């Protein structure tokens, strides 16, 4: 069985340099790194995970706590996010530990138990609230973490986010260019930071187009297909006129399309519909849904890179990723 010294001899470097490459922990020239990796592959060298972890007092495990509330475990967006995180972890020889928590108040106890038990080296936070108690708790305890999202005022902590405000502004401009002037908007509860940013994008998009903001066109609902259906149905029953609709999530948009079909109004012909996420089923609906794609692979890689920097004690800069408007037949 090959050892780290065998790899060092084959690559013509010191064992310390091989260790730097394996742990991604020191300055190594690109050509030297390539030589070491080639030697590792040629010799079939596999570092002993337990020994490495014991030496560094690390578990090489990323902690992700999923709320088991009304949409998360069944929401295709979160399944895509977990898939992207799993791929990114594999690229860095990390494990992903997924824990579930029904009670948000129990999140903090679960965080402490997993970290103090050395089950994880740090956490990924999702579903951020505008005032999220997990942030000050982790900061006070000195626990490394990265957030997928922001809080009110952004805050000084490592985060990666998708620019929901810019995305919805683009969606509004896209609809205005096609002659729409009465654009309805379905939003999740504004306690979620992403919902707040996306609603701001709707407001700013209307202002940039010189259109008035009409509260009757805005509906706040749970971020589910059923809630999107009920919100759109209420607009139709109340007789609120609109020729286009933007939903802050694809699931809400799909529910709205169902309500339109039932009312005899054809999405993409009578009413333009745009969603946000680009979940797999968005391309399979009737008609296929125009939506703002969250680039999941890019998000997963950015989150894990930022997490690794936080675990190393660095202060990684925030990352704001732009969504991509995917034009299909619904708008």
Describe this structure in a few short sentences:
With 331 residues, the chain is α/β, with parallel strands linked by helices.
Q: Order the strands across the largest sheet as they lie in space.
A: 2-1-3-4-5-11
CATH architecture of the largest domain: 3-Layer(aba) Sandwich
**Structural classification:** alpha/beta
The radius of gyration over CA amounts to: 23 Å
Task: Work out the helicity level.
Answer: 40-55%
Which oligomerization state do the chains in this entry correspond to? Answer: single chain
Note the beta-strand portion. 15-25%
The span between the termini is 60 Å
Mean pLDDT: 89
Number of domains: 3
CATH class of the largest domain: Alpha Beta
Largest sheet: 6 strands, parallel
Jot down its keywords.
about 325 residues; alpha/beta; Rossmann fold; 3 domains; six-stranded mixed beta sheet; 12 helices; about 15% strand
What does this protein structure show overall?
There is one protein chain. The protein is of the alpha/beta class and 331 residues long. It folds into 3 domains: 4-47, 434 Repressor (Amino-terminal Domain), CATH 1.10.260.40; 61-162 and 296-322, Response regulator (Rossmann fold), CATH 3.40.50.2300; 164-293, Response regulator (Rossmann fold). 44% of the residues lie in helices and 16% in strands. It has 12 helices and 12 strands. The chain has helices at residues 4-11, 15-23, 30-43, 49-56, 76-91, 107-116, 134-141, 164-177, 193-208, 225-237, 250-262, 296-311; strands spanning 61-67, 95-101, 122-125, 145-148, 159-162, 183-187, 218-220, 244-247, 272-277, 290-293, 319-321, 324-326. The protein has a 6-stranded parallel sheet with strand order 2-1-3-4-5-11, with helices on both faces. Strands 7-6-8-9-10-12 form a 6-stranded mixed sheet, with helices on both faces. Strand 1, helix 5 and strand 2 form a beta-alpha-beta unit. Helix 1 crosses helix 3 and helix 10 crosses helix 11. The longest helix has 16 residues, at 76-91. It starts with a helix and ends in a 5-residue tail after the last strand.
């Amino acid at each position: 069985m090959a050892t780290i010294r065998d790899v060092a001899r084959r690559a013509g470097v010191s064992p310390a340099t091989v260790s730097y490459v394996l742990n991604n922990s020191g300055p190594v020239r690109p050509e030297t790194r390539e030589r070491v990796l080639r030697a590792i592959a040629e010799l079939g060298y596999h570092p002993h995970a337990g020994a490495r972890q014991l030496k560094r007092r690390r578990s090489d495990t990323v902690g992700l706590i999923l709320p088991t509330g009304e949409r998360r475990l069944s929401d295709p967006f979160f399944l895509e996010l977990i898939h992207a995180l799993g791929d990114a972890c594999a690229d860095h020889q990390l494990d992903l530990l997924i824990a579930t928590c029904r009670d948000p108040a129990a999140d903090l106890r679960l965080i402490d138990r997993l970290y103090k038990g050395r089950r994880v080296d740090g956490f990924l936070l999702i579903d951020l609230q505008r005032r999220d108690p997990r942030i000050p708790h982790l900061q006070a305890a000195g626990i490394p973490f990265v957030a997928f999202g922001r809080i009110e005022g952004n805050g000084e902590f490592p985060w990666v986010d998708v620019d929901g405000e810019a995305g919805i502004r683009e969606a509004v401009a896209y609809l205005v260019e096609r002659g729409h002037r009465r654009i309805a908007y379905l939003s999740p509860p504004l306690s979620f930071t992403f919902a707040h940013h996306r609603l701001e994008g709707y407001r700013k998009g209307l202002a940039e187009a010189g259109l008035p903001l009409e509260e009757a066109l805005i509906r706040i609902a749970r971020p589910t297909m059923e809630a999107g259906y009920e919100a759109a149905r209420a607009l139709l029953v109340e007789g609120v006129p609109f020729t286009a609709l933007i939903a802050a999530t694809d699931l809400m948009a799909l529910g709205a399309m169902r309500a339109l079909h039932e009312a005899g109004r054809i999405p993409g012909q009578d009413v333009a519909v745009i969603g946000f996420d680009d979940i797999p089923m968005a391309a399979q609906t009737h008609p296929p849904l125009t939506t703002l794609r969250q680039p999941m692979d890019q998000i997963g890689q950015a989150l894990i890179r930022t997490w690794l920097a936080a675990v190393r004690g660095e202060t990684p800069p925030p990352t704001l990723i732009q969504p991509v408007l995917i034009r299909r037949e619904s708008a």
